[in-house]
Prior knowledge:
This protein is an alpha+beta fold and 141 residues long. The protein has a single domain, classed as Glutaredoxin (3-Layer(aba) Sandwich). 29% of the residues lie in helices and 18% in strands. The chain has helices at 19-27, 48-61, 76-81, 123-134; strands at residues 2-3, 7-8, 37-41, 69-72, 89-92, 95-96, 111-113, 116-118. The strands form three sheets. Strands 4-3-5-6 form a four-stranded mixed beta sheet, covered by helices on one side. Strand 5 (89-92) and strand 6 form a beta hairpin. Helix 2 crosses helix 4.
Amino acid sequence: xxxxxxxxxxxxxxxxxxxxxxxxxxxxxxxxxxxxxxxxxxxxxxxxxxxxxxxxxxxxxxxxxxxxxxxxxxxxxxxxxxxxxxxxxxxxxxxxxxxxxxxxxxxxxxxxxxxxxxxxxxxxxxxxxxxxxxxxxxxxx
Length: 141
């Protein structure tokens, strides 16, 4: 279901977030039409669908009304071309939201979460990464 034709309202997502909170997030939309959120995955990634839902929820809660596109990475050449460091990878405006010390590769990716390593970040870490990507760099004063 779309709210105002702009963003999806995800029933029951994220867990513990009621309809009023989802509506509040939806009404605080910014002018984000020039943003390009992208989820990059490999074929058969077991986290693809949940990562897509997680990214949609995080973008909505951060007031970003642009849906994430999904790019499937199939070859090592594509991984290098798109600076892909494992599936799933969350990006905004061409930048991976989570630093990776690995070389680009067609592989799975793990994220450090409050409960240990997982196949995707938790919602709050993803939201922090989205906000950090939009913050102007600190001045070197």
